[in-house]
Design goal:
Its EC number is 2.4.1.21. Residues 287-450 form the Glycosyl transferase family domain. By secondary structure, the protein is α/β, with parallel strands linked by helices. The chain has helices at residues 18-31, 45-48, 86-89, 107-122, 144-149, 199-206, 215-220, 231-236, 273-283, 306-318, 331-343, 356-365, 381-387, 398-403, 409-414, 427-441, 444-455, 462-475, and strands spanning 2-6, 36-42, 55-60, 68-75, 78-84, 133-137, 157-162, 170-171, 192-193, 196-198, 209-212, 241-243, 293-297, 322-327, 348-352, 368-371, 391-395, 420-422. It folds into 2 domains: 2-247 and 461-475, Glycogen Phosphorylase B (Rossmann fold, 3-Layer(aba) Sandwich); 267-455, Rossmann fold (3-Layer(aba) Sandwich). α1 (18-31) links the parallel β1 and β2 (36-42). α10 (306-318) packs parallel to α11 (331-343) and α10 (306-318) packs across α16. The chain is globular. The relative contact order is 0.10. The mean pLDDT is 96.
């Protein structure tokens, strides 16, 4: 079975968030089930730097404003088809934002090209390659199902995966004439959305199957509280909407072999985490000590609940805790965190930006990983935390609800608790959860049992890859054996 994954980012070539982690890990997980997945990705500078040995498999005289080539290559364990279109993608830095921090004004063109090329590949553009399923990820690939729906072939099947419904790809109506779609595609059952063009809306409307990245989030987005305007559409399509939990690359995230750690360890040698904690404290300018160290590796945004943490920070320190924050985002939140560092020297540390190696050290050295999101489609941070014996403290939303078992009395008595949940996602509930976490930390045997239990949690792609394989097989009318 040939599947083409269509994505605007893929780890480790280009990454701004969890989307890249998912699209980077899924091909290998599916290969174990006999599914060949290639990845179509824009030719950003970071991507082109990795494909020096690639071969040109197609050329375009005019791809949304200029000539372009398709380059097939294998890099970082991925089978890639790269769109080499300098007029669209040869730009430094973030793949979506210009130097002023705003969206590139031609993002509509850049990602329409991505979707259009995917459709052409499924039509047989490259000799010897014709994917049967196009798997589109997020709004940047949202036009893929629309190009298929309004195209010449009814044999191509499409899957639309929503990683975060808050990012929708909405543009003005003036771009429609440049997309290469027939006039009747500009309708409520096509790409039209509030008198403009909606890329994610097009995908949700036109795809054969819609998936999102956790069962709870699949239910949440069919409600007004979480649907971001799409709840009606998704509720009407509920029979074709499902939630499949993300997994993580358990080879890249393995505390027993991770070169980013000062000391590697397993569930049976978890005491070695203390070495990582000391190194982490030094990196963040924190005082050495054995009090509870809370970690955050997040985009600093309202959605992620960073303001809730800031509201509870003085209490956390007063109760004997420390906080290490790695991330960047909202300027006001960054300013508030810097003020907290000055207010609590040696107790609060903040490093702006993102560093992959340091993020591993936070997981391997912090005692608690805080994920207080107001909404979270799946979340990978808490999965890494479980894998590394770092107790996750999470809001009871989306995939956080599906992956962390709250340490309530019943769960502790049954021996199944792996973390701490709180609801609703507000400062009062978070403060209570911090106090519960501190109380658990003061019970060393209970704490170690939770750590070891988390490290044994199933966080790989094994089960989820099986779900995707089943969806592909059903779309193609093939028999699928979950045990294959």
């Amino acid at each position: 079975m040939e599947v083409l994954s269509v994505t605007s980012e893929v780890y480790p070539l280009v990454k701004t968030g969890g989307l890249a982690d998912v699209t980077g890990a899924l091909p290998a997980a599916l290969a174990e089930r006999g599914i060949s997945m290639r990845t179509l990705v824009p030719g950003y500078p970071a991507v082109r730097a990795k494909i020096a040995g690639g071969r040109v498999v197609a050329e375009f005289a005019d791809l949304f404003g200029g000539s372009a080539r398709l380059i097939a290559a294998r890099a970082e364990g991925l089978d890639l088809i790269v769109i080499d279109a300098p007029q669209l993608y040869d730009r430094p830095g973030n793949p979506y934002l210009g130097p002023d921090g705003r969206d590139w004004p031609d993002n509509w063109r850049r990602f329409a090209a991505l979707s259009w090329v995917a459709h052409e590949l499924a039509q047989g553009l490259v000799e010897g390659y014709r994917p049967q399923v196009l798997h589109a990820h997020d709004w940047q690939a949202g036009l893929v199902p629309a190009y298929v729906k309004y195209g010449p072939s009814d044999r191509i099947r499409t899957v639309m995966t929503v990683h975060n419904i808050a990012f929708q790809g909405r543009f003005g109506p003036e771009i429609f004439g440049y997309l290469g779609l027939p006039p009747h595609a500009y309708s409520i059952t096509g790409v039209e959305y509030f008198a403009g063009v909606g890329y994610l809306k097009a995908g949700l409307e036109c795809a054969d199957v819609v998936t999102t990245v956790s069962p709870t989030y699949a239910a949440e987005i069919r409600t007004a509280a979480f649907g971001m305007g799409f709840e009606g559409l998704l509720d009407a399509r509920s029979a074709t909407v499902s939630g499949i939990l993300n997994g993580i690359d358990t080879a890249a995230w393995d505390p027993a072999t991770d070169p980013a750690l000062a000391a590697t360890y397993t569930a049976s040698t978890i005491h070695k985490r203390a070495v990582n904690k000391a190194v982490l404290q030094e990196a963040f300018g924190l005082e050495k000590g054995d009090g509870p160290l809370f970690g955050i590796v997040r985009r600093l945004a309202w959605q992620k609940g960073i303001d809730l943490i800031i509201s509870c920070l003085d209490m956390l320190v007063a109760e004997g805790g420390q906080l290490a924050v790695l991330g960047s985002g909202d300027a006001e939140l960054e300013t508030a965190l810097r003020a907290a560092v000055l207010r609590h020297p040696g107790k609060v540390g903040f490093i702006a930006g993102y560093d992959e190696k340091l993020s591993h050290l936070v997981q391997g050295g912090a005692d608690v990983m805080m994920v207080p999101s107001r909404f979270e489609p799946c979340g990978l941070t808490q999965l890494y935390a479980l894998r590394y014996g770092c107790i996750p403290l999470v809001a009871r939303v989306g995939g956080l609800n599906d992956t962390v078992i709250d340490a309530n009395v019943a769960a502790l008595n049954a021996g199944v608790a792996t973390g701490v949940q709180f609801a609703p996602p507000d400062a009062h509930a978070l403060a209570d959860a911090i106090r519960r976490t501190l109380d658990l930390y003061r019970q060393p045997e209970t704490w170690k049992k939770m750590q070891r239990r988390g490290m044994k949690s199933e966080v790989s792609w094994e089960a989820s890859a099986g779900r995707y394989a089943e969806i592909y097989a059903n779309l193609l009318g093939l028999k699928h054996d979950q045990d294959d």
